[in-house]
């Protein structure tokens, strides 16, 4: 049976090996058990009833298992997307209403359609626009925002509607005095217990123990009567399949959020997927197919009344460590959630919301990455400031704007660097054919009448003016007149039409002054461009030299007299 | 007397030579005579009474003459800025009201402040973001939009309010039948006469002849009684100085237009200024100082009840050809306008508006550049599409959006090229130390166990993933195992922290497979980056080779046994 490229399950399922089963079974059950408290906690974070977090862990997992190229990735509700859902839907609907539920599902549909289309149009490369410093700054700030949003549950105090990190923190700090002692104790106790159990063994499903213990405590001592908020009645049974086409107005309102979630959730999915794949190497994660798979999974979320999800970091790590070999593990996890929905929902009646908050708190605190900031401070100051700017923008201007500002800033820096590339004046190491930067090496000699310049970057519209200015400055700084300019073009990776036009102007100017320009070490694609532009024709074969030493030889000895064949002008036109 | 750097007039006025005067006088008078009809025509285009175009040719010219670095640039009303003013102010005020006049002056103030601040903050480099194809596509489309806006004056028909090129053209074509014959005859006759006189001698102030002739015709035959619209009463005297601080609401409404005009008018100014300077060479145009000068000139426009202007193409060309040596010519032009305002305004009572439209028509048709589009079609298809996209966006989405889309597109293409740079697998020319691209040169030999790769561009966050993918593909395609990878890094102009992190991962992966990586021809700044990242330390001196031939020698012979000193690892830390 041959495999279908667009359906990766046809790749591994027909070739399934018996010895993969124990690993898949263990991993699938472990992740399923993790998913129960995590799914409920994240749904609460997203502003939905906890049970919808379990709905989001059914069909979406199955769809990803069939379409995804990663074999260990565990998709489902994740912290960042939950937070973004709360922000986006919370701005246009009231938490707890059926309208809110419907808009969350529509958001998942939009995210899914955006991701699916991006995959079909092969836009997976866009994820490369996110640099590590931007991702790090964004993630740290988002983690703090998410943690701050849980303070109300941890304190057991209604903080009212807050729309920014500062507002939330101010409200929380101002209301510490009104905290419900039992709620606070449960929340902090939960956090400490999770951290403690993790210290003992990372494979222990700590959140499940904490949830179990808290349910028993709340039930035994009737904590709900003492002001501790509990989850309460949960409808049993599988989610009803639903589908509703959004109106244009809803699309307009939700689109910016959908775009941010589509990007962030794909970024998390592909980042985690790539990291795990690198440890295995027996399969390949294909970005565009991942977009299709996570997009389909999010459309699945819309069908079961869930909300946007992604490939999550913590559950994928557990899945991998517990021995998952294929996506069968994910199918087993989904099966466990289905059983829970059918038979176990009454067990969660007494679950205190503070405990769900403590699960989220522990999960996101691990995402605050101070180490990376300190490392960049000493390694690359530019990238440190990029991280800091993205962090500040995300924390104070919001999650959606933060990632956009980070990407825009890193592209702006890239463009600015391209506008002002490094260049060097070269000199000859006496007695050799070696030419180096005169500012870096001592004892280099200048050849009378010859200026040798190296330009390190593509020559294009945004830097060709700078190039000509720098050349003019270099010419002015030479005391004696220059009759030949040698341009070491090894680093000129491409030229656009603005650059070739400007080069033509320059050559004319130079020829009026009887100055010759020789291009040394020009790479193939640039030779092609120069050939097409007609410049080569006008300048003749002596315009190109193999390298700087060759160009220097050219000055005194015309081409046809030199013994060595000229490879540099050969070109596969 | 030493010159003040911020006041270029102190540079040329104290050193003024007597033999410059005849040229300055001729040029100043010629441009002044041109300014009278052009200023009135452009003011009408901007939606202002014609006399305000003359106001805009007084103080602004004097301010530029003192602050500007170009000695031939003729500032004042120009077509593009007039059109943008009509669009921006026309959207929030009614033409002919005093509110419209006030908002036009406030717009000039905003444009001036933006340009002045940009100059003080040294943002002149931003003009480099405009590539030639974008400028060409934008200018051609803007010229068509401006020409279409004059059809109502040429036909002598009220076309009502139109907001797009398509709407204007549809309305004009639908109303051709209602055209006033006298108006149409005057307009078309005016255009033909200007073109005819130009053919004879470009120095003839053709528009002035046409204006004079038309005034005589309109007066002699009483054309205004036959439905030909005339300029009518013009207040005599100099403009009253005015200054009004804008409200926040006005700033909010006008800011996008002000930003577009600030960019476009600076682009025109610097482009024209640079072009003329290149012909002279006895002074230097400094972009940031030009921003300050044209900004001050626009603030001057706000003070005299003008509207945003720039250094214009046609008048600067005439100024230069007529022999202008310094900005004294501009001061003489301003003087002529002042005399006109004081004594000659009654002469323009009978001037038909259709004749002003014909002056604009002829001026802008010269800006439609089909030749450039055809040249790019055969030279650089990418740049042709860039021109076409900017042209279409400007024509159908509007002038303000068009230039933004053009810039965004050209930056996107630049970024995309940077994400997928050219790379080549190199082979050795038998019997030499010369290594070239195996896809371009035949008869190259492969060294067993050695993969030689050249990467042409900076290695940064957006392409390091691509680099690793391409390397992995190249390794897979080799039939026999590779023990050494040589990376020709001459074209790697910089590396950011994402790239060094990824390189560290790669080196670890490779060392697990007992594969060595040698970087050949690394330029100084990249060596510095690698040194700071700690990679150099870990890899030792053998990590760097002088060039590919050197790296091949390194494989069999460790560093300390080789006779030639290793210059490549020397570094000015």
Structure description:
The structure is a homodimer of 573-residue chains. Chain A is mainly alpha-helical. Chain A has 2 domains: 9-411, no CATH class; 423-561, 2-Layer Sandwich (Transcription Regulator spoIIAA). The first copy, chain A, has helices at 9-12, 21-46, 51-55, 59-67, 79-90, 98-120, 132-149, 151-155, 165-174, 181-200, 206-221, 248-280, 287-303, 313-321, 328-344, 353-365, 370-379, 381-397, 399-419, 464-477, 497-512, 524-533, 535-539, 548-556; strands spanning 75-76, 310-311, 423-428, 435-437, 450-455, 484-488, 516-520, 544-545. In chain A, the strands form 2 sheets. Chain A has a 6-stranded mixed sheet with strand order 4-3-5-6-7-8. A two-stranded antiparallel ribbon of chain A has the order 1-2. In chain A, helix 4 (59-67) runs antiparallel to helix 13 (287-303), helix 7 packs antiparallel against helix 17 and helix 7 runs antiparallel to helix 19. The radius of gyration of chain A is 31 Å and the shape is elongated.
Give structural attributes:
homodimer, mainly alpha, Transcription Regulator spoIIAA, 2 domains, 6-stranded mixed β-sheet, two-stranded antiparallel ribbon, disordered C terminus
**Strand arrangement across the biggest beta sheet of chain A:** 4-3-5-6-7-8
What is the approximate shape of chain A? elongated
Q: Please bin the fraction of helical residues of chain A.
A: 55-70%
Low-confidence stretches of chain A: 562-573
Provide a compact summary of the structure.
The structure is a homodimer of 573-residue chains. Chain A is mainly alpha-helical.
